[in-house]
Amino acid sequence: MNLQKFNSKSGKLVRRTATFGREIIEFDYFLPKELPNMKEFCNDLSVIEKSNEANRAIGELQGLTKNIGNLDLFVDPYLRKEAVDSSEIEGTIVSLTDVFLSEAGSKKPEFTNPNVKEVVNFVNAIDYTISQLKSGEKISKELINQMHRILLTGTRGHYHLIGEYRKQQNWIKSRGATKDILDADFVPPSEEEVEELMNYLFDYVNKNDGYMRLIKSALIHYLFETIHPYEDGNGRVGRTLITLYLIQSNILEQPILYLSPYLKKYKEVYYNLLMEVRETGNYIKWIKFFLDGVTEVAINTSKKVKKLIDLYNGYKQKLTDINATAISFKLLDKFFERPYYFITLLQEELKENYPKTKRGLNYLMECEIIKPYTKYKRNKIYVAPEILRILEEDLI
């Protein structure tokens, strides 16, 4: 850390001596202050304008999704895209196709990416946490720890402490830097400070302010990443916390807004602005960047959902025009949830026999909705290429 840059407006540097391996090292860590009163931002018209713009964009997205009969057809694959993007920010490279093939039941080596487990865990962790929120649970230590446990179990980070706050000092470094804490870009609070800081954060999250909640979500994300409470997985948990807070605070009804595509595109700016808050106490630049991201992602998500709705309605009309069987429409829904499928998995999920399922698939192939992905005679994988293309594209 460049100690000369820290001016103590957002926190203070604390000198510490600790043992790493056989070495005793003296270093400074950053201890954040309480977050500023929201009233501090009310006098900045540019912040208020950006907040209003972001709220309008979210409102339009919400209005669009309310007119969709089965929103799960769009929420489920979009969640998987978020898991891929957020994991990529942390250096885990997995394609959306890798994830869909894994979930389609593929066990063949040519379709197996060893990193898929991390992304699938991410999906399961978000699914679990959102279901708990919808059942009335609040964002809390227990909820976030369980999310963290699901996220890391069975992955390459399994050797880290899972489902618990860290019990040792950690630090953030650039990829090219050495592993020495003295070369760290940022040293978060000591492990002894984590519990108290996280208790403050949860109190802040659950305080019913009733206004300026998008600005508040920016501050929540900043503080979580600054505390860095876990040994591993902080970035993914911290970005998910944005969506969780927006759902809990009733800004979002469904988990349809994720900032990872925006933060991935502007990764260096993202990290630099978080660091600038710590060093100088300049929350405004970070908040404006965050609000711009909310607006951009909400607008582009609306565009993507509209494309999928148009495609879905067009496909239904094609199937109607050729008098397709009833199961064909059920199969269509399945391919919108997951663009790759084994026929055996479709049989299992729809509880139908092979001839009936195969006949339905033939109608979808006749309408050029799906095509075989493999050339195997048995247990073929089918893909819906146009659905996949829309899901994979980055509109930002």
Question: Which structural class fits the helix and strand makeup?
Answer: mainly alpha
Number of helices: 15
What is the CATH superfamily label of the largest domain? Fido-like domain
Mean pLDDT, to the nearest integer, reads: 89
Overall number of strands: 5
- How many separate domains make up the residues? 2
* CATH architecture identity of the largest domain: Orthogonal Bundle
What series of H and E elements makes up the topology?
EEHHHHHHHHHHHHEHHEEH
N-to-C terminal Cα separation, in Å? 32 Å
Largest beta sheet: strand ordering: 3-5-4
User: What is the molecular shape?
Assistant: globular
- Mind describing the biggest β-sheet? 3 strands, antiparallel
Please identify the top-level CATH class of the largest domain: Mainly Alpha
The Cα radius of gyration reads 23 Å
Q: Poorly predicted ranges (pLDDT <50, ≥5 residues)?
A: none
State which percent range the strand residues make up.
Answer: 5-15%
Helix content: 55-70%
